[in-house]
Specification:
This protein is an all-alpha fold. It has four helices and no strands. It has one domain: ACP-like (Non-ribosomal Peptide Synthetase Peptidyl Carrier Protein, Chain A, Orthogonal Bundle), CATH 1.10.1200.10.
Length: about 80
């Protein structure tokens, strides 16, 4: 499975929204359910799935599918 697709499905699962509402360009501002609590749950899911440990600054920047994808690519997660 392509990484962007995997991220999309994780975001959909964490936010408890239909996967069709999440696309490769989705951003936190586009999805009402993606609030600060959901952000923390999403980061936890990413940590569990990909074994990453983002800093507080990185967590604050992980607000879109492209940003999450870039972070995981930079972190060497495949």
């Amino acid at each position: 499975m392509e990484m962007t697709e995997k991220i999309r499905l994780i975001v959909s699962d964490v936010l408890e929204v239909d996967a069709n509402r999440i696309d490769a360009e989705s951003h936190q501002a586009d999805i009402a359910e993606w609030d600060s609590l959901a952000q923390l749950r999403l980061v936890t899911a990413l940590e569990e799935e990909f074994g990453v440990k983002p800093t507080m600054r990185e967590i604050a920047e992980l607000t879109s599918i492209p940003a999450i994808t870039r972070y995981l690519n930079i972190s060497g997660t495949h």
